[in-house]
Specification:
CATH architecture: Orthogonal Bundle
Number of strands: 0
CATH topology: Hypothetical protein af1432
Radius of gyration: 15 Å
Order of helices and strands: HHHHHHHHH
CATH class: Mainly Alpha
Number of domains: 1
Distance between the termini: 27 Å
Structural class: mainly alpha
Shape: globular
Largest sheet: none
CATH superfamily: Hypothetical protein af1432
């Protein structure tokens, strides 16, 4: 993990925002963004990894994050990483490909979400396999673009 004033602020916010959530494997959700952040190589991607689902999955908004002092590069990437359900998934992925920060975070996100070893055998059903296929398609697209 890269520790700067801003990454520590993002780490605390990530924990606060997700502390009561669990993922599809019934593990504390916060482990997921922490895992992504450990893979990042600079301050901005680390912050984005920590906050990549905050706007999408919690009451926090991009304006809240702006008021907290997060820079425009972070806010722009987070805007791309926040999936509007009205936008088809692959259109969302194609937009992410236009921003190197969002792309790096999303690729780590997709790799982690595609790791079926995180799931118990009884959790790997047809729905999980279909979701995994969608993630693999997106990862392939981002790898090529």
């Amino acid at each position: 993990m890269i520790y700067t004033t801003l990454t520590k602020k993002a780490l605390k916010l990530c924990f606060e925002a997700h502390k009561d959530q669990v993922d599809k494997t019934d593990m504390p959700y916060v482990f997921h963004p922490f895992h992504l952040a450990e893979q990042m190589t600079d301050e901005v991607t680390t912050i984005c990894a920590l906050l990549h689902d905050v706007v999408e999955d919690t009451p926090y908004t991009l304006d809240d994050l702006r008021e907290m002092g997060f820079p425009d590069a972070v806010l722009e990437a987070l805007a791309l990483l926040t999936h509007d359900p009205a936008v088809p998934y692959m259109d969302y992925v194609k937009e992410i490909a236009t921003n190197s920060i969002a792309k790096a975070v999303k690729m780590a996100d997709l790799r982690h979400n595609s790791d079926l070893s995180r799931m118990e055998p009884h959790q790997i059903d047809a729905r999980a396999l279909k979701r995994n296929e969608k993630y693999r398609t997106a990862l392939d697209y981002l790898s090529e673009h």
